[in-house]
Amino acid sequence: MKKFTTVDDINDLDELILTAKKIKSDPFGSPELGKNKVLGLLFFNPSLRTRLSTQKASLNLGMDCIVMNLNTEGWSLEFEDRTVMDGNKAEHIKEAAQVISQYCDIVGVRSFPTLTDKEKDEAEQVINSFVKYSSIPVISLEGATEHPLQAVADALTIQEYKTKRKPKVVLTWAPHPKALPHAVPNSFAKIMKLSKYDLVIAHPKGYELNPEITKGTTITDNQDEAFKNADFIYAKNWSSYNDYGKILSNDTNWTITKEKMALTNNAKFMHCLPVRRNMIVSDEVLDSEDSIVIPQANNRTFAVQAILTKILENGK
Amino acid sequence: MKKFTTVDDINDLDELILTAKKIKSDPFGSPELGKNKVLGLLFFNPSLRTRLSTQKASLNLGMDCIVMNLNTEGWSLEFEDRTVMDGNKAEHIKEAAQVISQYCDIVGVRSFPTLTDKEKDEAEQVINSFVKYSSIPVISLEGATEHPLQAVADALTIQEYKTKRKPKVVLTWAPHPKALPHAVPNSFAKIMKLSKYDLVIAHPKGYELNPEITKGTTITDNQDEAFKNADFIYAKNWSSYNDYGKILSNDTNWTITKEKMALTNNAKFMHCLPVRRNMIVSDEVLDSEDSIVIPQANNRTFAVQAILTKILENGK
Amino acid sequence: MKKFTTVDDINDLDELILTAKKIKSDPFGSPELGKNKVLGLLFFNPSLRTRLSTQKASLNLGMDCIVMNLNTEGWSLEFEDRTVMDGNKAEHIKEAAQVISQYCDIVGVRSFPTLTDKEKDEAEQVINSFVKYSSIPVISLEGATEHPLQAVADALTIQEYKTKRKPKVVLTWAPHPKALPHAVPNSFAKIMKLSKYDLVIAHPKGYELNPEITKGTTITDNQDEAFKNADFIYAKNWSSYNDYGKILSNDTNWTITKEKMALTNNAKFMHCLPVRRNMIVSDEVLDSEDSIVIPQANNRTFAVQAILTKILENGK
């Protein structure tokens, strides 16, 4: 594996999930793999799970981890070509990425979308610039349009909890007070397709995701209908993709409640976290034994450790 | 030891101090104890000594340490139950604590008081929420009402410098331009009681500490009287407890000067640091050979290393 | 080596460069040298290369590295003596430096100049206060008037690329939208003198550097003339030293272009980074094969690793 910035970078999902499961059963089993290797983690945005689980995974592999908050600790970066840099941007990504590549062996980057400039967001300007100019493998710690490490953890979690070969998985929009990115639903939809599960996406009209990602997937604006026979409910808010970055509705009829969950086939409740209680999901559901958000978050460590393992083994 | 968030969590102070002294004489003596263990340090407030000494102690034990500044690097946390999270708080402590518990083996939390909401501060809402929802041991890196790691370092320091079995120890209020918490004097008063030393607390009228903590202790508003025959002077500012969080006086007659120290039995001068020169204490006293604030700060490493050792040994 | 805060601290440059070259050929060759040692890195200002390369170098040596952003994570420091600390500064450097010396084995400090208070900047108040009060070796991660780690990397880079014993090296001012410090040009001028290379400094009138540093060096305001027969062009902006901290000109005739480089003896282009494209240097030059800014940045790791090695060997 040379980079991991989208679910599309996964060659063999079954094999990757198997690797993650092996690592989970013996997380300290390869203490030499990361020896004398440095993982650089560059954050342009807040992070809890990704930050901690990725540090934990690198330590498990005997790898050193250096964390930088680029906005506050480094220099403001220019991403446009051929500009006269006479403004506030002190360093061009061309130099920054090449330089970082010399101090680190793998670099992870988190960069959220603007949610105002669709073209720039779709181009994944920040992460793809790192890919373009770095001489080391780049992993996404959540980009503008994808969160592939989350998706691997999600797939691992469903693999662990499913009781049938091809479970029905519902990705459902739920209300939230702020405009949120599409990265998590995009990567989840992609990895569910790879998993060949029975995926249904439910959202109010106007919240259609990028049709290139969802084509071939059942989509409905009837949440109750979608929940019938569901084995997994994956709740997530996102802003409008067509009316880019806008909040069209905060309809609390879409909040996941006990009544909604009663429509399912004893479905497990999933969410990538952080989650807004009593907006996305009721306390009752989140605190119930059907909620698997905590073990789902735990799998973040093994997902990223599997990716790091694939990259490190590739480099040997 | 399952948690360490208050001096009350100490079962056997003599034994703990003995452990700290042993560690001080051989800080790298247990390099395997922390192997493959992660200490997470979560800061809601600034820190110098606690931050560095705790990292140092964990490294001494072969333990990896991950530091996070929650306010700037993570998500804003909600601590209230049953709220509709439609405001600025992105994540509930319930999830955050459970998730962090999966990536770390011990978690330390620093959270200063509001000094405006006495009830919330007394409840130690932040640290106690971590204790409630975490599945790993929680240590306080200074809470709203206690700073127990400081207290252990203080007790170790007095143990090292005392020349009689039961020294006279004076905890004296001193002036400061800002409203300060009660955490340090509270924990110090508690650990002096445990140590069975002759503790006297001196402060101007109106600066009474929580009477539940000071009951049984000699209290006076005559600083000069208190200093007579004192073996240790522990200076510290705090705001009013009764008129909660208020500054009632900045009476510089309470500043610790050479003249004041002359009243004592060649007392050692102590302070938890950071200290305001020529407010709390004159340059002359702080720079004198009777000042032991620097070795006192050094003992922070061995105090926290002793606590981590107790927790790690417990987990084996 | 007891401290490294100026190029003047170098006893034997040839031997230091040799050490750096040896380290570069075998960066993991001394994994025990830093064992159980802690390097503390204290930043008052942003940093990318220094931050990452120094962490990398310490890890290469088996040394633990603790990073602190003093302004946001610690307490505001007072550097003046005999002040009544009743303002916003919570801790005096006297205590801070002594305390940090107990938790770390070496401390690095970055503190940029004010560019308004020449006397204070020239006194290197921050770094020299750490030197004065610390009981451990202090290294500069860039001070008000010098950036000696950069200079060692620069000297190593020229040593690697030069094709004659005594190359002609031109340090040239170039335009920049903001007022910049003199630290890099000062340290570069000093180390070029030590290297006994043929140094020429070119800048517009009014941009004279500190004459104590440049005395004996050829200085010109004719950039084209300076570039003739040059083997290395080191571009850098700085603000006025005489009209302290002021921008006197942003004359883009001083930008390093292909045409300017054509005047040289196929010179290599150097810059300490971050660099403003199309202000300091044109894209064409920076992206050409004559630009060695990326390997120059790579040498930061080996420069600081050589310094840490000298200090650690000294301490044995």
Automatic annotation (TrEMBL), chains A, B, C:
Q: Name one GO molecular function term.
A: ornithine carbamoyltransferase activity
Every copy of the Aspartate/ornithine carbamoyltransferase carbamoyl-P binding domain together lies at 2-160
Which reactions appear under catalytic activity for this entry?
A: N(2)-succinyl-L-ornithine + carbamoyl phosphate = N(2)-succinyl-L-citrulline + phosphate + H(+)
Q: Report residues binding carbamoyl phosphate.
A: S47, L48, R49, T50, W75, R110, H147, P148, L149, Q150, C272, L273, R300
The UniProt record gives the binding positions of N(2)-succinyl-L-ornithine as E142, H176, K236, R276
Query: What Pfam family is a match, any one?
Result: OTCace_N
Ranges for domain Aspartate/ornithine carbamoyltransferase Asp/Orn-binding come to 184-309
Q: Which GO terms describe its biological process?
A: citrulline biosynthetic process; L-arginine biosynthetic process via ornithine
EC numbers, comma separated: 2.1.3.11
* Superkingdom of origin: Bacteria
Keywords assigned: Amino-acid biosynthesis, Arginine biosynthesis, Transferase
Which biological pathway? Answer: Amino-acid biosynthesis; L-arginine biosynthesis
Annotated HAMAP family: SOTCase
How is the subunit organization of this protein annotated in UniProt? Homotrimer.
Per the record, the similarity remark reads: Belongs to the aspartate/ornithine carbamoyltransferase superfamily. SOTCase family.
Q: What does this protein do?
A: Catalyzes the transfer of the carbamoyl group from carbamoyl phosphate to the delta-amino group of N(2)-succinyl-L-ornithine to produce N(2)-succinyl-L-citrulline. Is essential for arginine biosynthesis.
NCBIfam families in the cross-refs: PRK04523.1
Report what the protein is called.
Answer: N-succinylornithine carbamoyltransferase
- Record organism: Flavobacterium endophyticum
Q: What is the lineage of its organism?
A: Bacteria, Pseudomonadati, Bacteroidota, Flavobacteriia, Flavobacteriales
What gene is this protein a product of?
A: argF'
